[in-house]
Each structure stands twice: as C-alpha cells, then as structure tokens.
Fold each of these.
Amino acid sequence: MTSDTTQTEPAAAKSENATEELTELIRSARVVLWDFDGPICRLFAGHSAAGVAGELVDWLASRGLHGLVTDTERDSLDPHLVLRAVDRRHPGSDLVAELEERLTKEELRATSTAMPTAFADILIQTWRARGARMAVTTNNSPRVVRAYLDDRGLTPCFAPHIYGRTQDLHRLKPDPHCLHRALNAMGAAPGAALMIGDSPSDFQAARTAGVPFLGYARNERKAKLLTEAGAVHVVGSLWPLLETLRHQAAPGGSGG
C-alpha cells in the first residue's frame, strides 16, 4: 500500500459518510425551515448592510442618542446588532419601533439588488414538488421576504409560512421563537424538520428547538464560524442537496 493510498482511503470514507449523512438529513425532512438572507439570497449584495448600519447610527446621533450604542456595536457594521442594542436599552419603545421601520425600509430597498443564492430557486421548487413543506424563519422583516419571493415567483412554495422579525426583538434568533411559530403552525415535530441557515445564531436556534441543522456557508469564513459554533453538517453549495433530491425522486434512475 502506498502512502498516497493510505491518505486517500480515509478521505474517501469520510466523504462517503458525509454524503450518506446529508442524504439522511434530506430524506427525513418533512418540513424545511429556511433562513432568508444567505441560503435563499444575499439580501445586501448590492445595498451595503454596513452602510445601513451606519445610517441607523447616524439617525440616532441626529436625535442626540449616539450613546445608545457602544463603540463595539457601532463598529460591527451589522444593522440587526444596532437595532437589538437599542431595544435592550429601551425595550418596546416608540424609538425602537421607528428604528425597526427604518431598517425594514432599507431591507425592502435591498430586495431590488439582492443576489439569488446559486441553485436556491430550483432546490426550493424541487423540494416542494417532492412533498416537503417550506417555511422561512428569519430575523429579516417578513415584508421583505414576501417582496423577494413574489419577485422570484417562489411565494407559493412558502405561503403562508413566513416568520420574520416582530416588535418583540428579544425573540430574534438565536432565540428559537420563529422556529417554534413555524413548527406549531405547520403541526410538525422538531425531529421531522430541517433548518437551513448560514450563521451561528441559526444553528443555536435550531439546536434549542430540537431541529436538525444544515449549515450553508458561501465562503471559508462562514464555514469556520458555523463549525466553531458546533454545526456538524455544513455545505458550500446547495447543488449537492438538489442532486440528492433528484436521486431520491428517481431510485430507478429515471427522473431529474
């Protein structure tokens, strides 16, 4: 046995096991809970999330409220983090409601330049056609999700199961609230569902809800964040899911 063979065989076995585990995840899923920004599209592909965060911070400063966010929160360039920071200090206030509405309007603007995730549309349509039920469980506004899905012709695959940001901002992921809403509305047991997400907060929400999790990572940085958070199953493309579905739908080799 050569050294090359010694190195290749374990790698091949590992790859085969990963394929089998992915197949089982997909086979077992009766309900698929999708995060929105990441697995379905890159919402801020053409409308900078960092720019939106900066605008929210500037708006607070214009009202003399610059001190409501720390330097770390300002430097995060994450609009959701800015929103949650203000909500922690003034929960349920009119200020938070106005800030959330400003974020929603920016997210709606972003839908016009959002970039569909490769293979997401056809995967969603194929999976739905194979009998799985779909829901969106996201920290984005449900108005934004509906606008994007309408534009892509995907709304019938999900409606009415779109569960996004509410006025209860402490219920954003990693809190599993939106997952529980979806499961309860669809009458689904957590073990019969599969969550597809691209962030540690998605993984944490799924774990707390008892829902199997599949991570989607469009780059190595996101993959590292997911695996460090504890995610076991992470893919860099949705293509293997589509191929697995096609093979399952046609065990005799016809279909696809």
Amino acid sequence: MSLRRTIQDLRLNADVANSEHQVKVRIGQFAELSGRLGRTVADSPALNIGLAEVQQLDLELPFDRDQEAAQVAESLRALAAELPTLTLEQDLNLAKDRVRSAEKYVRELRALVAGAWQTHVNQPPPAINSDLVDALAQGGVDVEEVRDELERARGRLLAIRSRAIPNEGDVEKFRDAIAAIHRCGDKLGEVVDADIADGIVGSQEQPGMPLSWFTPARLEKLAGLGIIDRFRVRLR
C-alpha cells in the first residue's frame, strides 16, 4: 500500500472516529436534558393542583404565576420544535437555557405552594381539653361519641398536615377537620361549662382541687352530671 493511500485511510478513520465521538457526546447531552426536563414535567401537574388549592386560601400570592407558566410552556414547545433540526455542530446553549428556566419556575412554584400550604395548616387547631374528655369518661359521663369524633378529626388533620404539597380537595378536607373539632368543643360545652370543666380536670391531677372550690352551685352542677359521688375529700 502506498504512503498516500495509507495517509488517506488514516484521515478517513480519524474523521469517522471524530464523528462517532460527536454523536456520543450529543446523545449524552440530549439524555441529560431529557432527564432534567422529564423530572420537571413530571412535577408540574401536582404543583399546579397544589397552586389551585392554596389560591383558595386567604394568603397573599404573586399575581404573575399564570403569565410565567404560559411563558415557560411556550418556551418548552419551541424547544421541542427546534431539537430535531439541530446539527451535530450546533451548541445546545439555548436548549439548556430553556430547560433551566423551566426548572427554575418549578422550583419557585414548589417553594411558593409549600410555604403557603404549611403556613395555613400549621396554625393552631381549636383547643380541646383531652384531659377533660378523659376525666369525664372516668367520672361516668358518656363522652365516647365526642372522643371518637375528636380522634377521627385529629387523625384527618394529621394526614393533611403531613403533605408538603396539597392534593386536590385538601383545603376543603382541612376545613372540614377543623369544623369537626369545633363541633366537639361545642358538644363538650353542652355537657359541662368551662368553670366545672376546670374543677373536673383539676381533681384528676395530683394536688386536687381545694375544698373551697366545691360551692353549693358547683356541687349542684356536678350532681347534674351524675359524677358527684366520684369526688373524695383528702386531708393533708
């Protein structure tokens, strides 16, 4: 084989190897962009649902979310149209910029939705004295219905609070759980007023209640509950 032919073959092989390398590099770049974009797109539906939920709350939210979402969507549509036309020599800077914009939008949207949601659901729930429920039950007052409803409502509340991003309908479920706890408080209020409740709970604690607390009016209310015989006088 002549030297000229040998040189030609070497150049051809080098060109082929270089082309193969370029193809592999471009495939790797596409795979990376595809993976990043796939994760971004996969997160979007849940975040949009979460955004729709927190928009029902009495919170201040940015007004440009819909406009920004439309811009990101249009950018991604343009990216999808352009990618098939790119040659091996063209860089992917514009494509990378569009993917970064989409990632930034989703990241900021997640922070917005999660922050608004956690601010709302972590507000203190209605105060219900569980010790009072236990004391009434130990005293023979039928409060099992209230206890069961309270436990169910608190369980629903705990499940809803555990979600970083609200699911569809979670705002309404949260409101229902809070309303259920309020109803439990109202039912306890119908059973015993706050003053008597303090005495019942205090009597269950180690120091007990002073004898002076048991006035005729309070004894009458305790008798009305059917639990007056549960109290004992302890000398110290």
